[in-house]
Write a structure and sequence with these properties.
Helices cover 61% and strands 3% of the residues. With 262 residues, it is mainly alpha-helical. One of its GO terms (cellular component) is gamma-tubulin complex.
């Protein structure tokens, strides 16, 4: 851990940078230090922190679903009851928004992991077998691999202008923990229990997340429209993952949902 100091985590302050106190580093001797330079180790640390942020967002969305899935089944079982329209509407907004944010975050995780593991890493291994003649060649190829990895994680100088938008979406995933006041717990089978659970949805927080998510998604879409479409890494290939099965539709310069509009 950075500084070797314990860092207690509070659920009220947990954010995408909550685990920044964790550092990734190596201590190597010559001649490995020719390849694993201080600059290279710093790049590894940045990538490690980004992957932790994505993993934390995925965990938050999964945890929310664990709290909601029983409630979903209960709502479906009690569809014959007369539910207050506002309560059910709030529940539907929460569920659909969670689905949309989950699609984005899981797509980001799949894109990053597949590109890091199956593209840039395999290319690096291939180069090791075919292009390395000395330590300087190895250092050069290793740095090229790290540059590709930075592009994949939107941490390169070229992509840093959009990195904050990804960070904001990841924070949206974490902020879902404020959407359920008091938690859901076990859902009873009668209408009274169900309405009590539905009334715990903090719709103000849900709508705040919705506004932040949609704003950053639209800004990313504008960046995508302006970005080169022939790049191997970066926003353009990620957007191809995001739009798989036409989850989003491009209508001119606008972007609309084909699935689960809120």
């Amino acid at each position: 851990m950075k500084g070797h100091r314990p860092m207690p985590l509070s659920t009220s302050t947990l954010g995408v940078h909550a685990f920044n106190f964790l550092g990734l580093g190596y201590r190597v001797d010559w001649p490995l230090s020719i390849v694993l330079t201080a600059g290279a180790l710093q790049i590894y640390a940045e990538i490690f922190s980004f992957l932790i942020q994505v993993k934390l967002a995925v965990f938050s969305l999964t945890d929310l679903w664990c709290s909601l899935k029983d409630l979903v089944q209960c709502v479906n079982r009690n569809h014959t009851f007369e539910h207050p329209e506002s309560e059910v509407s709030h529940f539907n907004i929460l569920m659909k928004l969670r689905h949309q944010v989950n699609h984005f975050v899981c797509t980001l995780q799949q894109y990053v992991v597949s590109q890091l593991s199956h593209v840039s890493w395999c290319r690096f291994l291939h180069s090791l077998h075919n292009k390395v003649k000395d330590m300087l060649d190895l250092e050069s190829l290793h740095m090229a691999y790290l540059m590709d990895s930075l592009h994949i994680c939107f941490l390169s100088d070229e992509t840093r202008h959009i990195a904050s938008k990804f960070e904001n979406v990841l924070q949206c995933a974490l902020d879902f923990r404020f959407c359920l006041t008091g938690g859901i717990g076990d859902v009873g089978i009668n209408q009274g229990d169900l309405m009590a659970k539905l009334s715990r949805i903090n719709i103000s927080q849900v709508l705040a997340i919705k506004r932040t998510f949609e704003r950053n998604l639209k800004e990313l879409h504008v960046c995508y429209l302006k970005s080169p479409k022939n790049r191997e890494f970066g926003l353009s290939p990620f957007w191809a993952y995001l739009k798989y099965n036409e989850f989003y539709s491009d209508d001119g310069n606008e972007m609309t949902y084909y699935a689960f509009p809120v």
